[in-house]
Amino acid sequence: MDLSRRTLLAGGLAAVIGGTVVACSSGMDTGSAKKNATGNLALWCWPGGLGKSVLDDTIAHFPDQHIKFSEVGGDFKQKLLTTFSGGTSIPDITGIKGEDIASLLPQASRFVDLKTIGADDAFLGQYLEWKVKQATTLDGKVLGIPIDIGPTALFYREDVFTAGGLPGDPAAVGAQMKSWDDFLQAGVELKAKNPKAFIVADAVDMYGTIVNQGTSRYIDKDNKFIGDQDHIRKAWDTAVKAITLKVDGKNLGGTNDWNAGLDQGTVPTVVGAAWVALDIKAAAKTSVGKWRVAPTPGGPANFGGSFLAITKNAADPKAAFEVIKYMLSPDNEAKAFADAQIFPATPAAYDKPQLKAADPFFGGQVPIDVFGPAAKDIPIAYEAPLDAAIAVPFTDALKLVQVGKKTSDAAWAEAIEKAKQIGKRQGVQ
Amino acid sequence: MTKRGILSYWRFYLALSPFYILFLIFGLYPMASTILLGFQKWDGFSPRTFVGLQNFAFLIEDSTFWLALKNTVVLFFMSTVPTLAIALVLAVMLNSAVRFSSVYRIAYFIPNITSLVAAAIFFAAVFSTNFGLINSGLRALGIETQDWLGQPWGIKIAISTMIVWQWAGYNTIIYLAGLQAIPREQYEAAKVDGAGATRTFFSITLPQLRPVVLFTVVTATIGGLQTFTEPQVMVGNSGGVGQSGLTIVMYFYQQAFLNNDYGYAAAIALSIFMLVLLFTAINWKLVGGRGKQ
């Protein structure tokens, strides 16, 4: 028994700590970028990040580069980070997800400033300005070229809307629900006719959308905490209004209730990025053809959308840039959309036939008519590296208001306090 | 006897070495590294900087940390106590002569080897509000349905239910092995002395099972204090409403792999280590003390 106890404890300790941190002293030598061997060009992206036909075509188009594509699944940023720390097998070109770009900007020394190898204003001008800004450091280095973007729209059930006394036509819906207040008002009318239909799928999600519609977020460029100011409080109050008007369905996207609700009409709207259409299509079975797309109340916002970047380890950054230039040209971005609904970051692609196609799922509507103008209109907001972490206390607190555990003011005060604490640890003033 | 140098035993050391080499690389080294990291600030990219006790100072002030700690301990009790009680009852039942006992044993053990993530997705579906199995049952009985995963206490119930489901069978098998090792004579003697079933259970079965109970309590403690997958899959990285499902390991994961604040995460990991140590010591005292009758 003694022996087994001891091994048990040792095993326990090893499990506690052994499983924890990757780490090691080799992570110490930063900045010293060893060049990769020439002859091969390693390209990393996550599954579904690049269009299949575009990728195959690019590999064939640059036979001399010997492009070696690795599809890296799981937590992409974590694996990239670990590889950087390890110091070997670092890719020449890597994808960077939209949600990770802000936290990688301080690591500009790991990446090539694309402006120095041919990304001039004329080239960058092909891409949406606000998207390029996301990959631009405060001192003007451009670290990534946009693969795609995630402009939002209001997806809604036309049949549920008309049965509930609301307009069914996308243009009329857009005209009536210009602001969030209009939208919530429509929600009250809808619920009066159909008590099971909640116009807001999830008020916490709605809060995130409203923050994304703004021109400032939680931290400003001087690294000051501004999450306690009016722009955030207004988003908060609008979400709370949805809760108090009882038009909030509390159906978090992707849950069973959300999936089932799409067909049953209890989730008659989804406000989400263009790629959310894939989720809706995957979950909806009986409501095919009954969905429509209208502009987002309160103006367009963006969720996600990624980049390709060149690491300092790249053997031949110029050649790597040529590959990116080709792969992310407006023509190829349009093809990637046809491949896997990867929404182009180049407005020129919006006129291509791949994007002009009518979608039977949306009753023959042409979604680009809504997404195209939205994409060009997305506000530019500075996103600090710590922004995502600071946002968490706000959504957590709002959830407590949603289930009636806290009043709006008490939850707000708690969110501010926690956010400040997280900021303080990381040197935000 | 001939004197032999330590080198002449090389075959034995070689035979023993695989465990120690693996332990050195995957056990001891990360452990030492984590302890060091607890006193540093590191985002995974930049050079590490030494910050002394700053991480721990933040930890003490961090209300989320204390909440996660509380959640972990509450979840531990809510899951471990029923798990072990149910396991003991099942084991005693299986130990009495039943037909097809190996079928039952396999059936009870299967949850333990089922993929955690798959099971967690299944349980999240069972507890979902409008279309979940539990609420359908409540509705059929005319009882008011609950928003299980949308309420702080509901989240805890859902998570601990899953842990009980997963671990009761495993502990049953362990207890069963322990029961079968108890000499039959003792039961016969008890019968001769006129002891009933209850008296026999408390005076013979339970004391004889003591080392086995210690084993299960210690493993359950180590496992229970590291609960991660169940809440993470069921209520997401934030821990759900009121962060009610946020366990200490999840908080550690958040800090390390979502916020890339490795130094702070290491400080949390060290606190988990201390907590496990503390609980194990308490268990040892409570259950393992060599009490004579």
UniProtKB/TrEMBL annotation, chain A:
Q: By what name is this protein known? A: Extracellular solute-binding protein
Q: Which InterPro entries match?
A: Bact_solute-bd_prot1, SBP, TAT_signal
Organism superkingdom: Bacteria
- Coiled-coil residues are none
Specify the signal sequence span.
none
Q: Where are the transmembrane segments?
A: none
